[in-house]
């Protein structure tokens, strides 16, 4: 089950806001619907946001072929609408930059719109295939850090529902148990306010036969104090070149707790999640989402009208609290800066 799939000039996607009780696939030829799906987390997860935005750009290009006179100016508008969906996951901008390189080159050469569409679809497909390969490598390398009998705490969802294939944090768990036969128990933080852990991670892991216990976010410290957790693996939405990492809100508190309880704290992410243009986490934009996500759960109002709400969707974990960063280029241990810059040199060669 792929969370998004290009089905020949249309995108099929799983509406993740309806999981775990409803598996609803939607199909669209409209890039505007893809933008809305990313904004509303029907499609979510840093790598999947990048892949989906790339296909969304392709849908815009196909629509643009009916506007022969302003095909390329229209693409510019499609690009900016997709870029405006969510600010933190760098994969969105990394993917759209790759697509922009293709259509700007085509524009310079006065390439016909139909030919440009073909090249864009080819690039989006390549982005998806590369993510699948990166996932697989991260899963294999991450599994080498997992021992038989480990009890691993996860946060939010960094699994196959957030990526092109295996997932990142959950990919390591899948590989360790399903490929290497290691017995693992997972504790999944429910991850308020949108409950990606309870609704998505537990859904994925139990479908794959991995023993999973869902806990409220405020229970993680007690589980660590009781000695129930011996490893923490999370995903990422943007990593600075010094290793500071943006991930779902609540990740930073887990990293502090992990240090206090002397528990290894791993980040798993592809290099497409590294922002080579920034040096530290304070430069990462943090998405502030709608207060309604906290004020209401479905039709229940759980916060009185007069109370104000803050709803940052991500936080920044300093590199000093991270045991290692698992990438497809290798497992990086502190100090991260030079290792991340050497990855930049390697992939930009
Ligand atoms: C494999 S990256 C997944 C990453 O994205 C999630 O955020 P969201 O559900 O808001 O897209 C979360 O931060 C995960 O770690």
Distance between the termini: 35 Å
Superfamily at the CATH H level of the largest domain? Translation initiation factor eif-2b, domain 2
Poorly predicted residue ranges? none
The helix content is 40-55%
Q: Strand order of the main beta sheet, please?
A: 6-5-4-7-10-14-15
Strand content: 15-25%
Structural class: alpha/beta
How do the helices and strands follow one another from N- to C-terminus?
A: EEEHHHHHEHEHEHEEEHEHEEEEEH
**Quick one: overall form?**
globular
Give the names of the bound compounds. Answer: ligand LNRAV4D5
What is the CATH level 1 assignment of the largest domain? Alpha Beta
Query: In DSSP terms, counting alpha (H) and pi (I) runs of 4 or more, how many helices?
Result: 11
Known CATH architecture of the largest domain: 3-Layer(aba) Sandwich
Instruction: Indicate how many domains the architecture comprises.
Output: 2
Rg (CA only): 20 Å
Got a strand count? 15
CATH fold label of the largest domain: Rossmann fold
Major β-sheet, in short?
Answer: 7 strands, mixed
Task: Tell me, rounded to a whole number, the average pLDDT.
Answer: 97
Pathway: Amino-acid biosynthesis; L-methionine biosynthesis via salvage pathway; L-methionine from S-methyl-5-thio-alpha-D-ribose 1-phosphate: step 1/6
Pfam family, one: IF-2B
Catalytic activity: 5-(methylsulfanyl)-alpha-D-ribose 1-phosphate = 5-(methylsulfanyl)-D-ribulose 1-phosphate
Enzyme class: isomerase
């Amino acid at each position: 089950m792929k969370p998004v799939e290009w089905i020949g000039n249309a995108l099929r996607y799983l509406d993740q806001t309806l999981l775990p009780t409803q598996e609803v696939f939607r199909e669209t030829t409209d890039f505007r619907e893809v933008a809305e799906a990313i904004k509303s987390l029907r499609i979510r997860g840093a790598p999947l946001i990048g892949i989906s935005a790339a296909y969304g750009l392709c849908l815009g290009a196909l629509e643009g072929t009916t506007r022969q006179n302003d095909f390329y100016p229209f693409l510019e508008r499609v690009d900016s609408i997709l870029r405006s969906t969510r600010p933190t996951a760098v994969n969105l901008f990394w993917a759209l930059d790759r697509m922009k390189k293709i259509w700007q080159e085509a524009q310079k050469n006065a390439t016909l719109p139909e030919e440009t569409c073909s090249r864009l679809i080819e690039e989006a497909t390549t982005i998806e295939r590369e993510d699948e390969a990166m996932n697989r490598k991260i899963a294999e390398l991450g599994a080498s850090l997992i021992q038989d009998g480990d009890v691993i705490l996860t946060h939010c969802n960094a699994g196959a529902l957030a990526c092109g294939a295996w997932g990142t944090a959950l990919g390591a768990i899948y590989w360790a148990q399903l490929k290497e036969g290691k017995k693992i128990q997972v504790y999944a933080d429910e991850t308020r306010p949108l409950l990606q852990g309870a609704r998505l991670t537990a859904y994925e892991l139990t479908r794959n036969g991995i023993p999973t216990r869902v806990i409220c976010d405020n229970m993680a410290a007690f589980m660590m104090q009781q000695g129930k957790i011996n490893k923490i693996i999370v995903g990422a939405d943007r990593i600075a070149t010094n290793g500071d990492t943006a991930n779902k809100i609540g990740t930073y508190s887990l990293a502090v707790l992990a240090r206090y309880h002397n528990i290894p704290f791993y980040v798993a992410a592809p290099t497409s999640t590294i922002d080579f243009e920034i040096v530290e986490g304070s430069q990462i934009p943090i998405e502030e989402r709608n207060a309604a996500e906290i004020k209401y759960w479905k039709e229940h109002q759980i916060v009185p009208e007069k109370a104000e709400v803050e709803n940052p969707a991500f936080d920044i974990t300093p590199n000093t609290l991270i045991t290692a960063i698992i990438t497809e280029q290798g497992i990086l241990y502190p100090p991260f800066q030079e290792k991340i810059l050497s990855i930049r040199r390697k992939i930009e060669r």
